[in-house]
Amino acid sequence: MLDLQGLVKTFHPGTENEVRALQGVDLLVEEGSFVVVIGTNGSGKSTLQNAVSGSFLVDSGSIRLAGRDITRWPEHRRASLIGRVFQNPFSGTAPSMSVGENLALALRRGQRRTLGRNAFLRGREALADRVRRLGMGLEDRLENEIGSLSGGQRQALTLLMATLRRPELLLLDEHTAALDPRAADSVIRLTDDLVREGKLTTLMVTHSMQQAVGLGDRLVMMHRGRVVADLRGEEKRRLRPSDLLDRFDEIKRREQIDASVAEMLRETYV
Ligand SMILES: Nc1ncnc2c1ncn2[C@@H]1O[C@H](COP(=O)(O)OP(=O)(O)OP(=O)(O)O)[C@@H](O)[C@H]1O
C-alpha cells in the first residue's frame, strides 16, 4: 500500500521563479490498485511521482510504502521497492549492453548474493518465456544491443525489467507518449496484462483520455499541485472521455470566475 499524506514541494522558494508544485497531496493507494493520474499541464503529476521515487525530498508530509516510512530514504534505497518507466524509451536501460544483459541485471537487482547455477538456469528459462510472451520477437534478439531496438520494443522491455522482481509500487510516467499509435497500443496492452497478472500497485500518469477511461480501477485528477477529483468503482467504469473534458472545462471556467472576482475585488479595494 502507498500512503501519501500532506505532500508539499516548492521549487525555488522565495525567488521570482517559485513554483508550488505540490500543495498538500493526500493519496491512499490500496495494495494491488491501478490508479491513473491525469491533469492539466504543470499540475504536479510528474512531481508527485518524483517525490515518491525520491528524486528529491519533500518539504513536508509523509510517504509510506508497504508498511515502511520512506519519506527520508535516498532514491537508490527506494529503487529496491519501486519500478519506474519514463516517457523516454532511452531511460532505464543500459544502451551499450545487450537485451539479455539488461534483463539479467534487472533480475539480479536487489539480490544480495549471486544465484546458484540451477537457480540461474531456471531464472533464464522463465525470463526467455516472459520475453517470448511480449510478442515482439525480442527472444531472437537477446544478443543485440538495446540501442538497436525500436522505441516500442524498448518500452516493452523496460516495462518487463521494471516488473521482473515484483515491485511494491510501479510508477509509469507517460510511458507511451513518445511512441507511434500502434506501438503505444501494444505497450498499453502489455501494461494492463503485467499489472493485472502481478496484481501490482500502480500509479500511471497519462495525457490520453482514452487510456484514462479504459485503464485502471481508479482515476485521480490533479490541478495546481492538488488532487481535485478521485473516481473509482462504478463512477470510474461509466466514465467517457467527454466527461473528463467536461471536468477540465469546469476547472477552467471556475478559475476564470475566480480571476474575475479577484480582479473586481482589486478594483474595489486597491
Ligand atoms: N526540478 C524542478 N525545478 C523547478 N521547477 C520544477 C521542477 N520540476 C517541476 N517543476 C515545476 O513544477 C510544476 C509541476 O510540474 P510537473 O512536471 O510535475 O507537472 P505535470 O503535471 O507532470 O505536467 P505535464 O503534464 O506538462 O508534464 C511545473 O510548473 C514545473 O515547471
Quick gist of this model?
By secondary structure, the protein is of the alpha/beta class.
What does this molecule look like?
It is a peripheral membrane protein. The protein is built from 9 helices and 10 strands. With 270 residues, it is of the alpha/beta class. The mean pLDDT is 88. Strands 6-7-8-3-9-10 form a 6-stranded mixed β-sheet, with helices on both faces. The protein has helices spanning 45-53, 75-78, 99-108, 117-133, 151-164, 181-198, 209-214, 233-237, 241-269; strands at residues 2-11, 19-29, 34-39, 60-65, 68-69, 82-85, 169-173, 202-205, 218-223, 226-232. The protein is 41% helix and 23% strand. The chain has one domain: P-loop containing nucleotide triphosphate hydrolases (Rossmann fold), CATH 3.40.50.300. The radius of gyration is 21 Å and the shape is globular. Adenosine-5'-triphosphate binds next to strand 2 and helix 1.
**Main sheet strand line-up:** 6-7-8-3-9-10
CATH superfamily: P-loop containing nucleotide triphosphate hydrolases
Tell me the helix content.
40-55%
What's the mean pLDDT score?
88
CATH top level assignment:
Alpha Beta
Radius of gyration: 21 Å
Shape: globular
GO molecular function, one term: ATP binding
InterPro entries: AAA+_ATPase, ABC_transporter-like_ATP-bd, ABC_transporter-like_CS, ABC_transporter_ATP-bind, P-loop_NTPase
Domain ABC transporter: 2-249
Protein name: ABC transporter related protein
